[in-house]
Amino acid sequence: MGKLRTGGAPTLPVLALTLLATVLPARVASAQSNEELLRRMEALEKRVQELEAEKAARDAADRAQAARENPATPPAPATTPASTPTPRPTPTPTPAPAADAGGGATSIYGSTGPAPGPATPPAPGKDRSWWEKLKVGGQVRVRGEWKNTIDYRTPGTLGRPATDRPNDDDDVALLRTRLWVDATPVENVRAYVQIQDSRIFGEEASVNTDSKNVDLHQGFFELQRVLGSRLTARIGRQEFLFGDQRLVSPNEFSNVGRSFDAVRLTWNAETWSADLFTSLVREGTTTDEDRNFDGLYLTYKGLPDHTFDLYLFQRRFSDGTIAGETGPPGDLIDFTPGVRAKGKTGAVDYGAELAWQVGERGNDDVSAHAVACTVGYTFEMAGKPRLGVLYEYASGDAHPTDGRFGTFDSLFPFKFAYQGWRNGHDAVASLEASPFAGAKFTLEYHNYWLEHQRDAWYLGSGAALRRAATGSPSTYVGSELVLVSKIVLNPSLDLVPGYAHMFAGDFLRDTGFAEDTDWLFLQARVNF
Predict the structure, then answer these.
(1) What's the CA gap between 400 and 407, in Å, rounded?
(2) How far is CA 392 from CA 317, 372, 429, 451, 461, in A?
(3) Number of other CB atoms surrounding residue 309 within 10 Å
(4) I need a surface site. Which of 42, 52, 104, 386 has the fewest CB within 10 A?
(5) Cα 119 → chain centroid
(6) Own/partner pairs for 266-270, CB < 8 Å, 24+ apart?
(7) pTM for the model
(8) CB contact at 8 A, 276 and 264
(9) 3-class DSSP state for residue 294?
(10) Residue 416: beta bridge partners?
């Protein structure tokens, strides 16, 4: 058979004519054997392959000629011969855990930006260009704050300088800059680097000073679908966020944030996930003096709109610097098991969390507990307003010298509100609404009580703000009104203005100065 050419590539009509010219005579000549028909069919298949190979060769020659005539024009992709078998699709890789492995709500105060979630793997067999393997971006965040009372610590106590005036006011401008690179050099292998500079306006001695505020905020590599399974391994410096951030959080509102030097294994199935991690909080002078934080976090997500968590965290601080109620400083070894549920049914949403704490702190035995529960109702109307109530409680220590430590320690929490999740009650009523696209407003009214007067009033960070050695007649700390909004101006720019007023209560008046506090801030953030 002669060569068929139709100005280059064989077209569908040419192939159809070839088929008719080959098969039709075999149909008419009924005396011809079946073996002859089979040979003709094989010859036809071979000829089609030859024609497609010739077409591919001509296309390659045309592309080479075009490249010589016009070097700036990128070459067109090669045409795959029709006879080449199509690669069978592989199963979609199981995603690595998102920042919130426990399904917690995203904070209104801003996310961490491009996240340490999984990069999209390439299609099987696809040779990607370098710009498909590499993504870069960053974030610049500026926040101005003003307070008419710096804090409620009495000057000369709990680390506050004695020269401070009780009601000193302060204003500050904070700047945080983050740059990140996310690379997937080959399928199921990922590397992520995030550099951060954190500073306060005017903190350097002069405009010629170069204070070193740059640090590695995150830097890890990730192996996805280990041995073809649902397992993801992440090794390096990384953020942790579990549940509602009461115990483990990247603390996004902070100008520095929080990250851990850790190894994290995640198994992500359709209805459940498991996270197992170990981290080094601080390296000691010897192995026996390290500070470690480890955990196991299990999540069941088999019911739509509902999440159930079971977790266990452990701290091993072996540097001998933890003070107990009695005796010299020692080590800290404690365990924090807990359960959490969160979900929505129609217009009603709910959440509940219960945690315990046991172990040893210096020479003391640790026995503490905490609980939180919330319920809300969202109205089907303009702005989607939500009314909610929240109650949080954490145990305190009734007898500061009995060798039994009863104050719940909230580990590595999100730090924003005055009241921490320790030695106290926080009863909250809230209203949320989105009156226009890209905006969310949250109004909260808090009431704070201590559980035990002889224990301290603690910040969200865990730092003690006020302590009465002999106890106070009242446990009522005060109330706080908080208004925070988030306004997304465009995909790259958002604003977070906020205001809070603290109404001092009887406990503050019984133990020192008790002026009300105003706090005003405005945050702007640009992602690129």
Answers:
(1) 10
(2) 27, 4, 12, 12, 16
(3) 23
(4) 42
(5) 14
(6) 266/96, 266/97, 266/101, 266/231, 266/232, 266/233, 266/234, 267/229, 267/230, 267/231, 267/232, 268/94, 268/95, 268/96, 268/97, 268/230, 268/232, 269/94, 269/230
(7) 0.75
(8) yes
(9) strand
(10) none
The pLDDT tens digits for 132-166 are 789 999 999 999 999 987 677 766 666 676 667 76
SS3 19: helix
* Burial classification of residue 13, based on how many CB atoms lie within 10 Å of its CB (0-12 exposed, 13-18 middle, 19 or more buried): exposed
For the chain, the 3-state helix, strand and coil shares in percent, each to the nearest 5, are: 15, 45, 45
Whole-number Å distance between alpha carbons of 342 and 390: 13
Residues whose CB is less than 8 angstroms from the CB of residue 17 and which lie 6 or more positions away in sequence, other chains included: none
Phi, psi of 511 (to 5 degrees): -120, 10
Q: How far apart are CA 59 and CA 8, in angstroms?
A: 9
DSSP-derived pairing of the beta strands 330-345 and 348-361:
antiparallel
Residue 412 is given by DSSP the state: B
Q: Between the CA of residue 158 and those of 92, 162, 163, what are the distances in Å?
A: 54, 10, 13
pLDDT confidence tier of residue 352, bands split at 50, 70 and 90: very high
* Buried-exposed string 170-191: b where 16+ CB fall within 10 A, e elsewhere: eeeebbbbbbbbbbbeebbebb
Tokens of 459: 């910040």
Distance of alpha carbon 310 from alpha carbon 324, whole angstroms: 29
Q: What are 178's two structure tokens?
A: 């983050």
Single-letter amino acid code for the residue at 39: R
In three-state secondary structure terms, 225 is: coil
Decide if 229 contacts 202 (C-beta within 8 A): no
What is the rounded CA–CA span in Å between residue 377 and residue 432? 10
Model pLDDT for residues 173-227, shown as the tens digit of each residue: 999 999 999 999 999 999 999 999 999 998 887 777 777 789 999 999 999 999 9
Q: How many CB atoms lie within 10 A of CB 315?
A: 23
- Provide the Cα torsion 57, 62, 68, 71; round to 10°: -110
Rounded Cα–Cα distance for residues 47 and 41 (Å): 10
Q: Let me know the angle formed at the C-alpha of 289 by 288 and 291, rounded to the nearest 5 degrees.
A: 115
Maximum distance among all Cα pairs of the chain, rounded to whole angstroms: 116
